């Protein structure tokens, strides 16, 4: 793993946004793996500013999002589909038909997970995957578990994830389950960039980089990937 510590979220967003833009300049139909949450927002903002400057186009890009809540209408403002629309898709020239999500409301959950995994493979796999990390070391919504997950599946969210994300649901009941790409599928991406900012992530970051590889800390699996860059701010890097 390559570890890069930068001064603040804006600098990290610029570095990651530039990496995505460079890939799209090289390969306009690249397959992008995208994340939601607070961590990737500065990266999306930088991509939008590069698009507005005429430096990059998303017209031929294809995207796959890591995860989606179950039992939440797709048009709910806190669905990850809505998040991506607000934070990136509505502000660049991406073709909505080229943006892919797990359907957290599918009645046949196993079939939906197989559909999503097969679609990623059909487009040649993810070229560049953006990740955040949970305070408990989750990537996507792969919570601490006894074994590493492989393909997409439905997961019960861990108490720390419910606590971390409940603020977004202001008084409303937050979903307790989600569908997520598995750790094995995430590791098949050709290149991975992970962003972690703030002191609340410092312990998970230390365990991811310096701890043993264990499904109890799902992000530790990234130690096995040949092309991972971890971007940290000083607070997230403080225990290294
Ligand atoms: C979101 C996702 C999660 C988040 C993680 C960190 O699609 O897959 O793993 O990246 O929960 O969330 P933030 O960035 O909000 O701290």
What is the strand and helix layout of this fold?
Elements: E1 2-5, H1 9-26, E2 31-34, H2 41-52, E3 62-65, E4 67-69, H3 80-87, E5 99-100, H4 109-122, E6 128-131, E7 153-156, H5 159-166, E8 177-180, H6 183-187, E9 191-196, H7 202-210, E10 228-232
Helix pairs in contact: 1-2
Bound molecules: fructose -6-phosphate.
Provide a brief overview of the structure.
The protein has helices at 9-26, 41-52, 80-87, 109-122, 159-166, 183-187, 202-210; strands at 2-5, 31-34, 62-65, 67-69, 99-100, 128-131, 153-156, 177-180, 191-196, 228-232. With 240 residues, the protein is an alpha/beta fold.
Task: Kindly describe this structure.
The mean pLDDT is 97. It is globular and about 45 Å long. It is 31% helix and 17% strand. The chain contains seven helices and ten strands. Bound molecules: fructose -6-phosphate (F6R). The site of fructose -6-phosphate has 14 residues, from loops.
Tertiary shape: globular
Strand content: 15-25%
The Cα radius of gyration reads: 17 Å
Name the ligand types: fructose -6-phosphate
Give the low-confidence spans.
Answer: none
Structure classification: alpha/beta
Number of helices: 7
* Helix content range: 25-40%
Mean pLDDT: 97
Main sheet record: 7 strands, parallel
- Strands of the widest sheet, in order across it, are 1-10-9-6-2-3-5
Helix-strand string: EHEHEEHEHEEHEHEHE
What is the terminal-to-terminal distance?
13 Å
Total beta strands: 10
List keywords for this structure.
seven-stranded parallel sheet, globular, single chain, 10 strands, binds fructose -6-phosphate, 240 residues, three-stranded antiparallel sheet, alpha/beta
């Amino acid at each position: 793993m390559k570890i890069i510590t930068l001064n603040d979220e804006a600098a990290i967003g610029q570095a990651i946004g530039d990496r995505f833009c460079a890939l799209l300049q090289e390969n306009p139909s690249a397959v992008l793996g995208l994340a939601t949450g607070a961590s990737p927002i500065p990266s999306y903002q930088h991509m939008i500013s590069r698009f507005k400057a005429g430096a990059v186009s998303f017209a031929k890009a294809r995207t796959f999002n890591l995860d989606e809540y179950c039992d939440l209408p797709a048009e709910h403002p806190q669905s990850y589909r809505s998040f991506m629309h607000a934070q990136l898709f509505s502000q660049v020239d991406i073709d909505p038909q080229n943006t892919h999500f797990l359907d957290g409301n599918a009645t046949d959950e196993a079939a939906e997970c197989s559909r999503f995994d097969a679609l990623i493979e059909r487009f040649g796999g993810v070229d560049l995957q953006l990740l955040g990390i949970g305070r408990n070391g989750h990537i996507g919504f792969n919570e601490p578990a006894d074994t590493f997950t492989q393909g997409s599946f439905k997961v019960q969210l861990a108490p720390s994830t419910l606590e971390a994300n409940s603020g977004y649901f202001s008084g409303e009941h937050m979903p307790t389950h989600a569908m997520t790409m598995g750790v094995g599928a995430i590791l098949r991406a050709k290149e991975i960039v992970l962003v972690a900012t703030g002191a609340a992530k410092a312990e998970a970051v230390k365990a991811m980089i310096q701890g043993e590889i264990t499904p109890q800390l799902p992000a530790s699996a990234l130690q096995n990937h040949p092309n991972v860059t971890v971007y940290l701010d000083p607070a997230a890097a403080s225990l290294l």
